[in-house]
Amino acid sequence: MLQKPKSVKLRALRSPRKFGVAGRSCQEVLRKGCLRFQLPERGSRLCLYEDGTELTEDYFPSVPDNAELVLLTSGQAWQGWFRHVSQDSLTLLGSSCPPALVS
């Protein structure tokens, strides 16, 4: 029996756009995402937007429907939205941030 396609929300690292993509495997979602964002498939990978966990074929079935994923190309990294937001917040605070929080 064929596995039901999983629907996910996909964004590229440097793109404000987000697309709904469905696939039965991690590779199928990756392929469709690369086509949608016009990125090279070779060297690309998928990570959870939430915490940066890299997806594998074994892990893919446990990803919930409508999960947000980040499409990364070779050389790109994503550590999750919380860490990204925290770093941006520290940058915005600049010198008004106590030294203990910056280090």
Largest sheet: 4 strands, mixed
Secondary-structure element string: EEHEEHH
Number of helices: 3
Report the count of strand segments. 4
N-to-C span = 53 Å
Q: Name the CATH class of one domain.
A: Alpha Beta
Structural class: alpha+beta
Describe this structure in words.
The chain is an alpha+beta fold and 103 residues long. It has a domain at 6-72: Ubiquitin-like (UB roll) (Roll). It has 3 helices and 4 strands; from the N terminus they run ββαββαα. Strands 2-1-4-3 form a 4-stranded mixed beta sheet, covered by helices on one side. Strand 1 and strand 2 form a beta hairpin. The longest helix is centred in the last third of the chain and has 13 residues, at 81-93. The radius of gyration is 16 Å and the shape is globular. It starts with 5 loop residues before the first strand and ends with a helix. One of its GO terms (biological process) is apoptotic DNA fragmentation.
Task: Write a compact overview of the structure shown.
By secondary structure, the protein is α+β, with helices and mostly antiparallel strands. It has helices spanning 26-37, 81-93, 99-102, and strands at residues 6-12, 18-23, 45-48, 67-72.
SSE inventory with pairings:
Blueprint: E1 6-12, E2 18-23, H1 26-37, E3 45-48, E4 67-72, H2 81-93, H3 99-102
Parallel strand pairs: 1-4
Antiparallel strand pairs: 1-2, 3-4
Features:
4 strands; globular; disordered C terminus; nucleus
